[in-house]
Write a sequence for this structure.
């Protein structure tokens, strides 16, 4: 089945079995290996991507349903060679150890910050509750997201002034 | 890397509900299997585990974007939820939050944010797993499940929907279109209590949806439903009968426990034990009744 | 916008600073390449494994369905394996089962095909003809030896640690007498269960052969373990084997020894097919077939004075090794060496025994035996405290080992003993003493309680292990005053790469941006020993430090006045050719360990930790929430305080998961819940906020001013702190993990009905 979709702002085309997973389309013909497979059953969140602006598990989305859709992956969170504040904070505040959960975690955190620029720690935990991490104990991930939220608010304020 | 030999499923995307029904009727007549796909959160797991590879393969029909299955609206005192509305949409819908807070609350306990973004009530009702949290929540309202086929629209009361483990009275060519909740009186008490394997991304061990109208120390209307304590969503008929027949002040822990124990039939499984589920079902029901003022 | 790798001030020391991790940018942009992100090699095949469906039996035949098209499929069985032994400690585990199968999921045949879909069908087209034999699944049953499934008696290893009265000629009797003579004698039984490491990235390898020999790249902790295994299996020379670590998505011990097996499998298929082979396990296969934490049963009996002074300790530690020995002797060893906890004992008799069962071999998992025995001793002292009517925290603090005290192996401790400070700080931060005294707080249907654990963990290999390992590190001087660190230590999330760069930068007096750390590939790096045993910073880091210092000294020796380090270095290279400092680890000279009597300096130093957990138990559902978690840990010196805390917190949450929700469910030697859906690790909502305090009691031989090993430490005490808190909250003492709501409910119901009688 031929599917046309926008990926990280670029129009792309794939031809795959309709029930092939969006995850396989991303990691295969679309050449974007940033999105990971940790469990294949929608439990770990390491395959999280934005689909039409909403975070989903790419391992549970058939490519056949993606025709005409817009996907944003970890590779699309910032321009090449730069880091978005959320990414930088995750790297600087201990939010990433082995890094395998990090791409999915960033998608979930980004989804939160787009709707809620001043989250509480519990709101952060709720937003990333579908992203399993085995390395960090989550504390530093929560701190990283709060740091990024603070930074984004300061930048906003600075820009507004 | 999943090693499952991904069979070559045929995939269809009908543009309208009528087209979908026609397709289903034609296939049903020829005894060809069809799978209706909305969010895919159950279905895709089955596919990746090789569980749906029958011979011949079912046709997969994508209904997630059918306009007729979407939307939430208030019809007098009934709340009508389109079968393909996602849990995330329900969570954010001001009508649901205002008029069916039990449903809104339940959505927070469905998987995690990424599952909520895709899962639908229609999908969960069609799968009819007794562990379906969404089903337990709406079942507390004694909803009508509306299904459509080439023969027209049929309205199935919740109590008549489930016949056994993952089995329903929905015909093979019928499609769930909407869920209609007859809303309780304004200010009715409600409760959503899920006991899962963890606080998110969890399958229920016991999940209670409850709604009650109380006046003069007595319960008028009551709706109770518990997930994961039997082959179907338990609607607790004996418990409902006891609670509506007895003034709240006269209820005792022992009498409540006794009817709950009769109303549920859980098993031991990989997640929990029969004893624990029976105990917990009793405890969460008593917890709700205590909120209503019963000394249980 | 950020430039995450902006270099720091060239002269300010970076040890002790939270520098941005070197691999951070790659990980947060999705650019870091884990093994399955590596592009397909030309002609690459996918590989898969056919596994035994039975837990024990005689393998009669491996049959290929004649109606299947095998023309583009490669099949490998035991007869294709040059030397069919997994090289580790004992030669009992085959690379592929030959005549017998001894556990469910045991690898029997390998299949490779370019077409992934066809590969799945090929696996299904292989049938194994196995004649079943009676199997044993329980360690106690195995110990009885009625059905012998391994060796002569199923017993793989035994250890005995004695001290004081137990050292006498009639040691056992003398010890018993000493124990019985104590004021208060308490006996208890404690058990722990399997735990799956559940790294979020599954095991995977890519292997190929060429004129240089055999290559394998993948998810791993110890490239030289794989290297050794290949030498044995393929009878190759060391320089013909090239093992490289890909960016690895978690290990926790689960990728210590297991990767050797999957790598050999991929290499066998690659050899027979003549093509590169990629083997990536899906979650179910990884869960079923790879190693788990050893289950344990400990029987503890202690004697103490009426005032709580501990005197005599008797313990029997039984561990379930699974079907083959793998690393069990070392797990049992570390277990018994930590069985005395961090307390003073006058008389000690600790027996350890490991037995075989027909389950997949158990293996390395963070803590490596110590979490099991720490659970036992901590829960036991909680029981002793209850009997004495004093607080457990007070009992433990009072008996804590201090400067000049001797451990259960009669090791006299000197220096770097931060236990008391950890107790003080953790108790203060959590208000433990007052909360404990107040008793449980019951509000509605919830009960809150608080509990603590106190523990220490030995850094590096036991006794003479490091001396035998002869771990080495190389540091090269490159052009432009740059240094490259070459070691076999892998970064598996804990920050090895960054920490080594910090240590090397300060030791050489250069900017951290001038230091690079080579990808661990056996072709390029010396054998520094494995990335295990809490040795990476403490042991390998110390020789990184020496090697970097040595290189700097060579440059300094030729540096002219006013000349930069870079210019002097370039001149040195031009004049004298390549400059490499190759340094071998030398354990401190005073380390004295008697391997026969299991006495003496078991580890050169211990890291210390105190956990305090506050929990809320739902009195209806018996769900336990950890509300807050405080720890104070003596790490010697925190090279990177943030990463250090990350280790302590991550390990603590693994311990909490082990205690409350993780459980491998078995049926006849098969795993019933090999998936994340039903093997429950904590989510961000289940995890408590962690309050982590770093204490520094520097270790004289530790790098960066005294760093000790801490990677495993946090795994040891979390479970018992939680159990103690639950006991405080609801008055039910649980001695057997896990504390699931079902088990808590059952225990509470039992204790209630007992109380009613």
């Amino acid at each position: 089945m031929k599917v046309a979709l926008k990926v990280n702002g670029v129009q792309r085309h794939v031809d795959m079995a309709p029930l092939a997973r969006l995850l396989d389309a991303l990691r295969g013909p679309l050449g974007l290996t940033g999105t990971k497979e940790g469990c294949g059953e929608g439990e770990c969140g390491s395959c999280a991507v934005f689909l039409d602006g909403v975070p989903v598990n790419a391992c549970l989305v058939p490519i056949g349903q993606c025709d005409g859709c817009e996907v944003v992956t970890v590779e699309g969170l910032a321009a090449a060679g730069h880091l978005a504040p959320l990414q930088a904070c995750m790297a600087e505040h201990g939010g990433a150890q082995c890094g395998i959960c990090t791409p999915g975690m960033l998608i979930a955190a980004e989804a939160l910050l787009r709707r809620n620029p001043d989250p509480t720690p519990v709101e952060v935990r709720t937003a990333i509750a579908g992203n399993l991490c085995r390395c960090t104990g989550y504390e530093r991930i929560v701190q990283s997201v709060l740091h990024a939220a603070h930074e984004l608010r300061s930048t906003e304020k600075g820009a507004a002034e | 890397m999943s090693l499952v030999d991904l069979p070559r499923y045929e995939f269809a995307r009908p543009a309208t509900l009528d087209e979908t029904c026609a397709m289903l009727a034609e296939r049903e007549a020829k005894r060809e299997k069809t799978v209706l796909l909305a969010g895919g959160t159950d279905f895709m797991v089955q596919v990746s585990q090789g569980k749906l590879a029958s011979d011949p393969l079912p046709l997969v029909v994508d209904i997630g974007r059918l306009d007729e299955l979407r939307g939430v609206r208030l019809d007098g005192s009934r709340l009508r939820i389109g079968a393909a509305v996602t849990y995330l949409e329900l969570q954010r819908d001001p009508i649901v939050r205002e008029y069916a807070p039990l449903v809104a609350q339940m959505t927070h306990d469905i998987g995690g944010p990424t599952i909520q973004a895709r899962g639908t009530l229609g999908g969960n009702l069609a799968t009819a797993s007794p562990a379906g949290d969404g089903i337990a929540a709406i079942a507390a309202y004694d909803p009508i499940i509306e299904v459509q086929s080439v023969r027209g629209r049929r309205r199935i009361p919740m109590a008549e929907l489930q016949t056994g483990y993952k089995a329903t009275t929905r015909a093979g060519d019928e499609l769930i279109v909407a869920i209609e909740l007859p809303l309780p009186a304004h200010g009715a008490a409600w409760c959503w209590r899920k006991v899962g394997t963890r606080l998110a991304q969890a399958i229920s061990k016991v999940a209670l949806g409850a709604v009650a109208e109380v006046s003069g120390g007595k319960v008028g209307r009551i709706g109770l439903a518990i997930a994961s304590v039997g082959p179907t969503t338990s609607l607790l008929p004996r418990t409902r009968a006891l609670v509506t027949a007895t003034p709240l002040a006269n209820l005792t822990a022992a009498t409540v426990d006794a009817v709950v124990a009769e109303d549920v039939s859980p098993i031991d499984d990989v997640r929990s034990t029969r004893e624990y589920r029976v105990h917990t079902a009793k405890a969460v029901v008593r917890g709700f009744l205590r909120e209503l003022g019963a000394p249980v | 916008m950020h430039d995450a790798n902006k270099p720091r001030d060239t002269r300010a020391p970076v040890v002790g600073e939270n520098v941005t991790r070197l691999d951070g940018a790659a990980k947060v942009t999705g650019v870091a390449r884990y093994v399955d992100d590596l592009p397909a090699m030309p002609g690459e095949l996918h590989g898969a494994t056919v596994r035994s469906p039975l837990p024990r039996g005689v393998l009669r035949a491996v049959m290929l369905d004649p109606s299947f098209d095998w023309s583009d499929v490669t099949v490998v069985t035991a007869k294709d394996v040059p030397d069919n032994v997994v090289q580790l400690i004992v030669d009992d585990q085959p690379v592929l089962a030959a005549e017998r199968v001894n556990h469910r999921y045991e690898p029997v045949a390998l299949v490779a095909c370019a077409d992934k879909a066809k590969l799945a069908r090929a696996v299904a087209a292989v049938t194994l003809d196995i004649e079943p034999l009676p199997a044993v699944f329980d360690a106690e049953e195995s110990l009885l030896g009625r059905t012998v499934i391994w060796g002569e008696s199923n017993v793989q290893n035994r250890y005995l640690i004695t001290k004081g009265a137990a050292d006498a000629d009639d040691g056992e009797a003398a010890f018993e007498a000493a124990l019985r003579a104590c004021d208060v004698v308490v006996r208890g039984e404690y058990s722990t269960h399997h735990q799956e490491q559940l790294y979020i990235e599954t095991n995977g390898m890519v292997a190929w052969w060429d004129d240089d020999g055999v290559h394998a790249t993948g998810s791993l902790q110890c490239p030289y373990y794989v290297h050794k295994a290949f030498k044995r299996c393929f009878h190759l020379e060391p320089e013909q084997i090239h093992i490289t670590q890909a960016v690895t998505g978690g290990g926790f011990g689960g990728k210590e020894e297991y990767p050797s097996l999957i790598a050999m499998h991929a290499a066998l298929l690659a050899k027979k097919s003549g093509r590169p082979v990629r083997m990536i396990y899906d979650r179910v296969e990884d869960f079923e077939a790879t190693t788990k934490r050893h289950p344990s049963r400990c029987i503890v009996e202690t004697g103490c004075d009426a005032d709580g002074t501990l005197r005599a300790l008797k313990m029997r530690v039984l561990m379930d090794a699974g079907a083959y020995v793998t690393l069990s002797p070392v797990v049992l060893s570390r277990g018994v060496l930590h069985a005395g906890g961090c307390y003073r004992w006058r008389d000690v008799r600790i027996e350890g025994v490991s037995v075989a069962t027909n389950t997949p071999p158990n293996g390395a998992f963070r803590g490596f035996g110590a979490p099991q025995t720490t659970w036992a001793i901590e829960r036991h002292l909680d029981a002793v405290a209850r009997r004495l009517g004093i607080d457990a925290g007070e009992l433990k603090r009072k008996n804590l080992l201090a400067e000049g005290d001797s451990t259960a192996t009669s090791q006299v401790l000197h220096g770097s003993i931060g236990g008391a400070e950890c107790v003080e700080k953790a108790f203060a931060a959590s208000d433990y003493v007052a909360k404990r005294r107040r008793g449980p707080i019951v509000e509605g249907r919830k009960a809150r309680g608080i509990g603590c654990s106190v523990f220490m963990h030995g850094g590096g290999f036991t006794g003479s292990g490091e001396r035998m390992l002869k771990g080495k590190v190389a540091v090269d001087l490159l052009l432009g005053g740059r240094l490259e660190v070459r070691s076999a230590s892998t970064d598996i999330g804990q920050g090895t790469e960054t920490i080594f760069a910090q240590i090397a930068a300060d030791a050489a007096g250069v900017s951290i941006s001038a230091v690079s750390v080579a990808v661990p590939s056996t072709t390029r790096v010396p054998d520094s020993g494995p990335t295990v045993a809490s040795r990476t910073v403490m042991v390998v880091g110390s020789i990184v430090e020496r090697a970097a210092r040595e290189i700097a000294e060579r440059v300094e020796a030729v540096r002219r006045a006013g000349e930069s380090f870079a210019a002097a270095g370039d001149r040195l290279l031009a004049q004298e050719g390549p400059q490499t400092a190759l340094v071998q680890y030398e354990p401190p000279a005073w380390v004295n360990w008697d391997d026969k009597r299991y006495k003496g300096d078991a580890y050169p130093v211990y890291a210390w930790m105190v956990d305090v957990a506050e929990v809320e138990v739902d009195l209806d559902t018996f769900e336990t929430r950890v509300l807050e978690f405080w720890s104070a840990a003596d790490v010697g010196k925190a090279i990177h305080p943030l990463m250090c805390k990350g280790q302590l917190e991550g390990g603590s949450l693994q311990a909490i998961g082990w205690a409350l929700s993780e459980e491998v469910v078995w049926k006849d030697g098969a795993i019933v819940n090999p998936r994340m859906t039903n093997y429950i690790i904590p989510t961000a909502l289940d995890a408590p906020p962690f309050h982590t305090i770093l204490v520094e009691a520097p270790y004289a031989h530790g790098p960066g001013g005294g760093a000790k090993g801490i990677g495993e430490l946090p795994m040891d005490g979390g479970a018992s702190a939680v159990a103690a808190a639950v006991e405080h909250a609801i008055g039910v003492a649980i001695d057997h993990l896990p504390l699931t709501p079902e088990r808590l409910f059952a225990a509470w119901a039992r204790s209630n009905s007992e109380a009613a009688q």
